[in-house]
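ok so i was messing around last nite and threw this chain in just to see what happens. nothing serious, just curious
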Amino acid sequence: MALIPYSLPKSVLFSLDPETAHELTMAALARFQNTPLACLWGDERVHDPVEIAGITFPNRVGMAAGLDKNGRVIDGLGAMGFGFVEVGTVTPKAQPGNPKPRMFRLPQANALINRLGFNNEGLDAFLANVTRARFRQQGGILGLNIGKNAATPIENAVDDYLICLDGVYPHADYVTVNISSPNTKNLRALQSDEALDALLDQLQTRRQTLIKRHGRTVPMFVKIAPDLDETQVGVIAATLQKNGVDGVVATNTTVSRDAVKGMPHAEETGGLSGGPVLEASNQVIRQLRAALGPRYPIIGVGGVLSAADALSKRDAGADLVQIYTGLIYKGPSLIKDCALALKG
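result:
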């Protein structure tokens, strides 16, 4: 059990600009992970092993990508009791992301809007951080999330994904291909039928080379958006199966503002996460499960702020659940609450 009630740091952090609060939190986790002070936020991992995509996950609750884009605090996050941690999105070259301010709280809705834009220090710095982390040696599962640089034309996007796949492959338990951030121009166009098929075909060809080179098969997942209709979801599902993709992460943030109309910051551009995306995400999960059948791995993410929300993801068809915005609003105790509920 964490020694500090989350209400104390939350009151301080929520008095600050959201990105400043994020940077301070990351700096503290980086400084004190793997020290005795990790007990301030740490908690025992719920034991609920489950095999998905050939991987045995210690429990069903993971950290979603986006919080730790540079892989700086894998161990700090792991100490909170996550069964798996996904870090990134990493791009081949370092990039600053979009202009500030680019992160906004909507507390009435337990929500955030961000338009960060894959701000990260690049693949080399990312891999240096990943290789230092002890989380995998301590039984945790590590997912590495890859994307494209903003300056890379969309028609050359595959080049960036291949560079990242080559780099992360030896260090990942699974790799997630992010084609669904709304904050990189034209990125979501990669979800369309022909573009997705072409991208996945080349990634799968490269993965076969990497399997031979490294002597191990690393599962590959694709992360999709919630802003898809049933026909689009069906096409994506068929394309994933055709190209031998091992699983799907559903979903990223939404560009819809229907659930937050009239709230301060609601009209800011970017991806909306937290409470308002729960049902949209669950709807995509239900459609994916219907299209993909009962055994295809689905990681459900979007709007998990309680154990009941985690159960709703499972009921929709998700095998595993990830949280991000819920951690910011509810604190690390949410991890155990969700893990215990999904174990029950």
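not much to say yet. The mean pLDDT is 96.
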